[in-house]
Specification:
The protein contains six helices and no strands. It is mostly helical.
Length: about 180
């Protein structure tokens, strides 16, 4: 009996939600688009990733469990914060929130050293994205815009890996390479 790979669901949930928010962070979409980002963060970025993470438990994949449940919770916390709690919160607190997520991402990036190169690059770029977004909220706003652009790259990389997983599994061979272990 084969076991379903939940990673593509989690990767697509992460990629699409990150893309939408990064468009706002990079000033390519107006702040008025944030409600669409929040809807996606609750449904696809948060819930679909969390479900994928729980499915990784069945597969014995600790990395996938922590990554998908962790970033699913990130999207839920982000959407809840923006929708219900953001008023009056100083930018420095948001900066620290992002910095802490950057620290989490740094640890996860180290975990990718034993995994494929695609994950290694995704987590490296995501770590730098969180750092730039944090610095943007800690008084260097132009770095936040650069973080938005780097978020677009992160999203594109995650989308590629999700696509590679689905296409390669469906075709039973490597159509889109993901790179050997780092």
């Amino acid at each position: 009996m084969s076991v379903t790979n939940p990673a593509p669901l989690g990767l697509f949930g992460f990629a699409l939600t990150t893309w939408m928010l990064s468009m706002v962070n990079a000033h390519l979409m107006p702040g008025a688009a944030v409600p669409m980002v929040l809807a996606m963060a609750f449904a696809f970025g948060g819930t679909a990733q969390f479900v994928a993470g729980m499915m990784e438990v069945r597969n014995g994949n600790t990395f996938g469990f922590v990554a998908f449940c962790g970033y699913g919770a990130f999207w839920w916390s982000f959407a809840l914060f923006v929708e219900f709690f953001a008023k009056g919160v100083p930018g420095a607190a948001v900066g620290w929130y992002l910095l802490l997520w950057g620290a989490f991402t740094f640890v996860m990036w180290i975990g990718t050293f034993a995994l494929n190169r695609a994950l290694f690059v995704i987590f490296l770029v995501l770590w730098v994205t969180f750092l730039l977004l944090a610095l943007g909220n800690l008084g260097m706003p132009s770095l936040g815009v650069y973080g938005g652009y780097l978020g677009l790259l992160t999203a594109a990389l995650a989308f590629y890996l999700g696509a590679a997983e689905v296409i390669n599994i469906t075709h039973g061979k490597t159509v889109l390479p993901i790179g050997a272990k780092s």
